[in-house]
Design goal:
2 copies of one chain form a homodimer. The first copy, chain A, is of the alpha+beta class. Chain A has helices spanning 12-20, 25-33, 39-46, 50-63, 86-89, 92-105; strands at residues 3-6, 66-72, 78-84, 114-118, 131-137, 149-153, 159-162. In chain A, the strands form 2 sheets. A two-stranded antiparallel sheet of chain A has the order 1-7. A two-stranded antiparallel ribbon of chain A has the order 2-3. In chain A, strand 2 (66-72) and strand 3 (78-84) form a beta hairpin. Chain A is globular and about 65 Å long. Chains A and B meet through helix 1, helix 2, helix 6, strand 4 and strand 5 of A and helix 1, helix 2, helix 6, strand 4 and strand 5 of B. Chain A binds a DNA duplex through helix 3, helix 4 and strand 3.
Amino acid sequence: METRRIDPVNCSVARALSVVGERWSLLIVREALDGARRFGEFHSRLGIARNLLATRLETLVTAGVMRRVPYQEPGDRQRFAYELTEQGRALRPTLVALLEWGDTYLADPQGPSVIVRHRPVDDAGSCDEPVKVVLECAAGHSHLAPEDVCRTPGPGARFLEIS
Amino acid sequence: METRRIDPVNCSVARALSVVGERWSLLIVREALDGARRFGEFHSRLGIARNLLATRLETLVTAGVMRRVPYQEPGDRQRFAYELTEQGRALRPTLVALLEWGDTYLADPQGPSVIVRHRPVDDAGSCDEPVKVVLECAAGHSHLAPEDVCRTPGPGARFLEIS
DNA sequence: CCTCTGGGTTTACAAGCTGAACTCAGCCCT
DNA sequence: AGGGCTGAGTTCAGCTTGTAAACCCAGAGG
């Protein structure tokens, strides 16, 4: 019997992980989503080694996840800060999904330490309810269970022939 | 001015990444979701070094993400397979979120290689439409943008005092 | 001129990853 | 019984990545 399978190497999950799958990368993005902007903020919040932080920030900047912007505090010289691009902010659902998984299966006995809430930045119409990540199909079926979905080849699929 | 901040180390994202944040771990889970069960399947699909695969599978088993089950093919001796637990299957939304992000920002020029579709395992009532991950709050507001949510302290939060 | 601070860079060492070779148990064939 | 094959690992040498601590540099302030 001959069958074929989607090439697992030519896959957006693998490509995504090649950018944000290195140690610390997602935690840096998380802190940035939470408002960290300066080298020292990332360093002291995460406890990451300084040289590694420098190379991670550089990697994230060249990947387009973050942007290096000059800023100047009054009575101080010009420095650089790091902020998320649109592409970086788009990692929020990934981080919420990871948070939810960690809360469900590895929680602190006290309960979750962080709850993500529906509170827009401008705070108008803030409803403050906890946020969850749900799977939803284009036909509008929502809250799909992990078993209700499967992977199918897309237009860019490469195949492996298996005997 | 004195303020306080959620301790970034006592966080479910960090705990989740300590289990599935190592190189290859999420790709192993992805292949398992796609049906891989045996050592050799993971090895040949991913091209991961055999010793590393062995330690990763062991880590995932002790973390409760996978389970080592004996099986026996007719006319062969007993061997062991690895299958996802409930906890492991719960990583599907995380992987879909990563896939979506990779598709959006790092796509192959041909388009995505994999599309996740709404197709239950039993195939009854299969609608086959593409699946997306969306943020939704408990009040029913759906399709929240990354800017519409924020992190707030939960019951297990530890705080850092900042001067 | 000296010191302080934020933002890095250098360096030495430890830990983690890779590929190839080796092992081991049981089935199959002769 | 002996030899080969296969799947599932284990061992090992060499390279790459991560860590911690020391060092450096450019302004601001005294």
